[in-house]
Amino acid sequence: MWSMLSRRPALRALCLWLACLLAGSSAWAQGAPKWPSKPIALIVPFAPGGSNDVIGRALAQRLSKELGQQVIVENRAGAGSVVGATHVARSAPDGYTLMFVSGSLATTAAVQQPPYDAATAFDGIARVAAAPFVFMVREGFPAKSVKDVVSYAKANPDKMNYGSAGLGDSTQLATELFNLVTGIKMTGVNYKGIAPAQLDLVAGRIDLVVTTVASIRGTVTEKLPMLAITSAKRAADMPNVPTVKESGIDYAVDVWWGLFGPAGLPADIRNRLNGLVREALKDPEFLSFLKNAGASAAHSTPEELNALLRSDIELWRKTVDAAGLRQK
Q: In terms of DSSP bridges, do strands 187-190 and 161-164 run parallel, antiparallel, or are they unpaired?
């Protein structure tokens, strides 16, 4: 009897401790800060003014409104998106550092050896938009279709050249992929951006440029012959421009833009952001903005974006290796 009585205070103390522990856990769960509780940094790994920056800022404004917290765009340019992407890859996966980037995330990984594994260092949230490239040739170039381009290049080996926005840029790799698919050889001329390449095309110093629709709108390049677009289907706003595939060439590539976070981003944050992007792409005003930017809505699930990134990395690495473009 004495032993049992002596144990009761200890049992009561244990029960009290457990009750306090449970109550504390519940209170912590109820009082834990909800995301987002502070501003979010949206890293754009390119300088202001380009398509990544322009579309990223429009999306940031939309997300700020829906989340009730500022989504602040930070331009961290350098090394073909490596500087900004490295910052994101090394950030905490807490939803307060995100990245808006184009498919250059894959092309850069194919050419360079960045300090991260692009296929695993990021969690895809949602693809936002996509756009075709367009084949442009100089005035007077003897081709009225991409099939004519192939015929000319084969009849004049090593005499045809093209301009790109630089080593590893999507404009270069898209053209080199065309070389590989068709078995032709065009000599690449790398510029510091696509604008000077387009100016040289207008001046007749180079023969061809594969660029985005957005980059030619409102410029003198827009008056040059537009042979084809690279998407699988014709563009609604350019119904008279055929696709490359319509020439019997098995070739289709797009530029895309997407929202990413560091690897390990919580599923609830990722899914919430994906839903907000999906809703933004139903807004006529946002859709009109994308159209004016030369793009169109192209929503995806996080899993689809991750798969797209990995497949693009594989495609561009094969292209880079075949063309001998890899940096050492």
A: parallel
